[in-house]
Write the structure tokens for this entry.
Amino acid sequence: MKQSVKLIAGNWKMNGLGASLGEARALSEALAAEPAACRVALCLPATLVHRLAEAVAGGVVEVGGQDCHAEASGAFTGSTSAAMLADAGATLVILGHSERRAGFGESDADVAAKVEAALAAGLEPIICVGETLDQRQAGEAVVVVSAQVAGSLPSSLSGKAFAVAYEPVWAIGTGLTPTLEQIEEVHAAVRAAMIGRLGEGGRIAPILYGGSVKPSNAAEILAVAEVGGALVGGASLKAADFLGIIRAA
Ligand code: 13P
């Protein structure tokens, strides 16, 4: 089966001040000295997107945001539009992260609307899905995740650059990971749901795994069928840790 180049994306979440950009610079310099075999992205808080873009300009590190509003502009105090992220230098944006679905009540329909906004601004969306521990224990992981894919991917994605990230909620920041068999099972279901939603257009986009990815487990996870990369939280904050994952791809 074809294996396109993997995408390793870091999600700093609500972490990072200007001083933290030293880690991004160190990452960029390490990748200039020794190129990666994969694409590398950092998705930073909105306040750092432009400074990151300047810090890594001319290098291989791609710049992303962590959310955008579904509307292009208007009276939405505190929100950031997709065009604003793009204007600040982002080329990617994470959408529908479980921390936004749970903490901000984002539905699949909300996520799909944000994906449309991202595409309109020329951003590559990374669309997150994943089951809770209760859903996993009830044997509903595949059903839940498949429904999230069906509901969160607008048909306009067909032919566009995007990624889906499978992040089991119970594996995020916990040090727990699914078994490799469980990852393979859900990724296969995600691929089937993508094809069901987008037809042939659902065959190519990478499916990232996220949730407690570390240098020590990255190689085995990235070798699983249909794992097209990783979405990394805690281990993306330090260049040395993140490089350990990148070098495993
Ligand atoms: P951790 O890698 O810290 O578990 O976070 C995963 C995640 O939520 C990335 O979006």
